[in-house]
Amino acid sequence: MDPTTETIADLYSRSLDILASLRARGDAAGTTERQAPRFSITRTAELVGRSGAAIREAEKDGRLPTVERTASGRRVGYTLAEINQMRAVFGTRPWRAPGDPVSIIAVQNFKGGVGKSTVSTHLAQYLAIKGYRVCLIDCDSQGSSTTMFGYVPDLDITEDDTLYPFIRNAEMSSLAYAVRATHWDGLYLVPANLKLYSAEYELAARIARADRKLLNRLSEGIASIEEHFDVIILDPPPALGTISLSVMRAANALLVPIPPTVVDFTSTTTFLAMLYETMGVLEEQGMPINLTWMRMLATRADEQKSMQRELLGVMRNLFGDTLLRTVLKDSAEIDNASARLMTVYELEGPVTSRETYQRGLTYLNAANAEVETLIRLTWPSHAERLRSDGVI
Ligand SMILES: Nc1ncnc2c1ncn2[C@@H]1O[C@H](COP(=O)(O)OP(=O)(O)OP(=O)(O)O)[C@@H](O)[C@H]1O
Ligand SMILES: [Mg+2]
Questions:
Q1: Which tens digit of pLDDT belongs to each residue from 291-329?
Q2: Residue 300 CB–ligand 1 contact under 6 Å
Q3: Atom number, ligand 1, closest to the C-alpha of residue 120
Q4: Rounded to 5 degrees, what are φ and ψ at 82?
Q5: Does residue 336 form part of some domain?
Q6: How much of the chain exceeds pLDDT 70, in percent?
Q7: How far is CA 344 from CA 120, 121, 148, 189, 227, in A?
Q8: Is 35 domain-assigned?
């Protein structure tokens, strides 16, 4: 090994040590020790779609188990698993009906650092809280989404835990081996690690030898597990490589995060051009990309900066209804949560101020709610209800 290679290898191994100690810290514990948040009775009632009184009644008459209480007799709060059990008892699960297509959402933009993984994980957890059955597939060898569930990809995840074996072995028929439960009831994760990077090259080499149908592997993997889920979220790497192409081919909806800066806007424009071209090429080869909806989402926006405000205005004019109404602002809470290998939905309370925390939660919820409506509109069993409820 030449000295530079040795230095890089050494730096890598020392970085891994630091990650391991970060993970070992209380607030960044590995997934096994992690607990999803608990919800107050008021919030629980809202999430279940029944009154607090109805829930207490069901606990009294034995339809629901009685909940844990503190020494002073207060409920400690309900877990998501308990809330989902209530939904089952009261018949308020929001699951898609058998005829409704599974939603497969790619959170894609070929530009790096625009908030793809942040949007993917917060959307996945938001939908899980709402009671949907969700699978988040980390398709990026950087494993950012995997990290947000408390794993250090290069330490905790092996290549056999990821998409990698399925993508390369045509004889494998199910992706179920890679789907793991998380500490969020109803939310499953297909983790990633560095090895997926090899898949990128291997696929490219094989595709060059006229094995183009390999771009269908991810889609086939999803088909093998989709009956268990309402929504599947794909977090791809920031490049137009074979994995990203596979993601586009597998998706039936597209969410594009864009920070309102000139550089990000420029690269999003390039993304749209490449996407357009790619769609044409894949279509010609009998592998069309079929999207039922596509939306842009302004992310990491700093409205104190006049240039960003201006660009947000331009984006609003240009994209019209394809831009979600909510803007995800640059938030210290999002940064703080990710430094703890978690999301804002997992923070017990504010890291900065209550106001910053609440504001962060408000726009995350608003953006995710917009996406939830788009998803439900694709489900005939829900669309009618949305119309009669006056949501649309
Ligand atoms: N709204 C936000 N406010 C503050 N920080 C944010 C916000 N969105 C993302 N970030 C931070 O920006 C960084 C990049 O975000 P993220 O990893 O989600 O981007 P990405 O598009 O997935 O990146 P990559 O292209 O490398 O996969 C992270 O540190 C994340 O915590
Ligand atoms: Mg990412």
A1: 999 999 999 999 889 999 999 999 999 999 999 999 999
A2: yes
A3: 18
A4: -65, -40
A5: yes
A6: 97
A7: 13, 10, 10, 18, 29
A8: no
Retrieve residue 212's tokens: 């183009």
Q: Are strands 293-298 and 253-258 parallel, antiparallel or unpaired?
A: parallel
- Which range, of 68-72, 139-143, 353-357, averages the lowest pLDDT? 68-72
Residue 222 lies in a domain: yes
- Residue in this structure with the two tokens 């597990």, named with its chain if needed: 225
The verdict on 194 and 50 lying in the same domain is no
- Structural domain span for residue 302: 103-388
CB 255 within 8 A of CB 371: yes
How many angstroms does the Cα of residue 351 sit away from the middle of ligand 1?
18
Q: Which tokens sit at 269?
A: 């424009």
- Report the candidate in 251, 226, 235 with the shortest Cα–Cα distance to residue 136: 235
Name the residues around ion ligand 2, CB cutoff 5 A.
Answer: 116-117, 144
CA 106 / ligand 2 centre spacing (Å): 12
332 lies in the same domain as 258: yes
The pLDDT, as a whole number, for residue 58 is 93
Rounded to an integer, the average pLDDT of 237-248 is: 91
Between helices 354-377 and 332-339, what is the axis angle to 10°?
90
Alpha-carbon span 77 to 74, nearest angstrom: 9
Is the Cβ atom of 113 under 6 angstroms away from ligand 1? yes
Beta strand spans in 186-265 (E): 187-190, 231-235, 253-258
pLDDT at 169 over 80: yes
Mean of per-residue pLDDT scores for the chain: 90
Ligand nearest to the CA of 338: 1
* DSSP run (H or E) holding 136: strand 134-138
Digit-coded pLDDT (tens) for 136-162: 999 999 999 999 998 989 889 999 999
Q: Is 225 in the pocket of ligand 1 (CB under 6 A)?
A: no
The number of residues making up the chain comes to 392
Over the stretch 199-235, which tens digit does the pLDDT of each residue have? 888 888 887 776 778 889 999 999 999 999 999 999 9
